[in-house]
Amino acid sequence: MSFESDINRFVDKVKKRQEAIHREAANEIHRSIVKGSEVTGSPGQPVDTGYLKGSWQIRFIEPLLAAIITFVKYAPNIEENIGRGGKPMTLKSKVGGFHSVKLTKAGFGKILNLARIRVVK
Fold first, then answer.
1. Fewest C-beta atoms under 10 Å: which of 41, 59, 80, 90?
2. Domain count across the chain
3. What is the dihedral of CA 106, 32, 112, 6, to 10 degrees?
C-alpha cells in the first residue's frame, strides 16, 4: 500500500458518504413536503383528491444534484394559502396544510443533520 492509494481510498470513501448523505437529505426533503415531518414541522400536502400530493416528484439529476418539483399550477397558491381574489383559503383537508415547502426550507439544517446521522451509523 502506498500513501497515494491510501489517499485515493479515503477520497472515494468521502465521495460515497457525501452522495449517501445527499440522497438521504433529498428523500427527507421530499417526505417533508409531501407527507409532513416532525423534523421540520411541515404539515405535508393537503389531501382532497390526492392529485397535488401525488404530483410532487423527486429526480436525482447527478450524484449531488436533486430536484423536487410539481407541475400542478395551483401548488404555489396552496403553499402560500392564497385563494381566489387573494383571500386566504379554507383548509378542507384533515391531512396536511399550508407552507410545507417554506417550513421544509427553514428546517434544511435539521434535515441535513438527520441525514448525516443516518448515513454515519
1. 90
2. 1
3. -150
In whole angstroms, what is the distance from residue 58 CA to residue 71 CA? 12
Range of the domain at 11: 3-120
What b/e sequence results for 9-45 when a residue is b if at least 16 CB atoms lie within 10 Å of its CB, and e otherwise?
eeeeeeeeeeebbbbbbbbbbbbbbbbbbebbebbbb
d(CA 38, CA 16): 27
